[in-house]
Amino acid sequence: MSSFLTELKATASRLSSSFQNSNPKEESINERKSRRRGYDVVKTSYTSLPVPIPEDFLKPLKNPEESIKVQRIEFENTVLKEYRGAYAVVLDGVLNEEECAMLIRFAEMSKGAHGNVVEGIKVENGVKDVDSEEADVGDEELQGPGNNGWTPALVNAGVGYEFLSTEYRNLDRIIWDQNDVVERIWRRVLQGKGIEEDIGVLEGKKWEKLASLGIRSGERWVGTNQGINERMRFLRYGRGQYFRDSAYGNADGERSFFTIHLYLNGSAQELEKDPSISKFPKDSKMLRGGATTFHSKDMKERLDVDPKVGRVLIFQHRRLLHSGDEVVAGVKYTMRSDLMF
């Protein structure tokens, strides 16, 4: 896997450089498509339709210490001792099952599904042809795109360019940009005991010694108010689909050091851990597989975090080799984004 990823990233870098040096006035979009090493690289852009979000959606929990269970992954006490000192934490109970289902529906609505059609705007796979800020959300009958807005996930090849590589990323995706929703999710996460103290501010010897995190001596990084990058990537994995391992930042000078995963449905393997369930139903529609897996560098050892509805996993970008394990039954839904500083 490591050699494949190295080759893939090198290809993306060459393609990005090629496109940035091209003259857009002399090329059409079709002419900008390039076939390199079997990949069709295309120019892409994404937009999100306005979605009416209820004011009480994802309001702060009244008793967070009872609702949210926090478990930090101490790698030195696992089979992955080589990641000693790396940061990863699991929070259970951040969202409930109904909230997760609503979040999936809202993401699909952002692409025109479930009757969320804005007059004067034509949207196909998240690409618009007029300014969405000039229109209001309508209540028309379902006219959304096929598959409720889910499309195959592409791989970044540089700013504004992507390509399809199912060997690396085999899943469907919805990209939804929404500041208010990510801020609400982040407020919930911060209700987890010790999370703000852990990663609200990054400075001092604790983080400086983790050179692989990308923090230099003397730097001080403070979490943004909304905490999570407004670009939410909703991911859907069907049977046989998976994700394989991959400096984060944005145009405003903000930077990311951590990934956040929000699991939107549960898995059979997680429920089977519950001692109160003596006989587990063999439901073919239930998710099996799909764990987020941390791998040793030699790929011989692994540590799984199984999907559980409302569970959040936060881990540092660098140093941790990870993947999304193959789904063997059912469908997996998750939302991925980055924490911004």
TrEMBL record:
InterPro entries attached to this UniProt entry: P4HA-like, Pro_4_hyd_alph
Q: Which cofactor does it need?
A: L-ascorbate
* Regions crossing the membrane: none
What protein am I looking at? Prolyl 4-hydroxylase alpha subunit domain-containing protein
| Keyword annotations | Dioxygenase, Iron, Metal-binding, Oxidoreductase
What is any one of the record's Gene Ontology cellular component terms?
A: endoplasmic reticulum
GO MF terms listed in the record are: iron ion binding; L-ascorbic acid binding; procollagen-proline 4-dioxygenase activity
Give residue spans, biased composition: Basic and acidic residues: 24-36
What SMART domains does the annotation carry? P4Hc
According to the entry, every stretch annotated as the Prolyl 4-hydroxylase alpha subunit domain falls at 86-340
Query: Region Disordered: which residues?
Result: 1-36
Q: Tell me the domain of life.
A: Eukaryota
UniProt lists compositionally biased (Polar residues) regions at: 13-23
- Is Oxidoreductase one of the keywords UniProt gives this record? yes
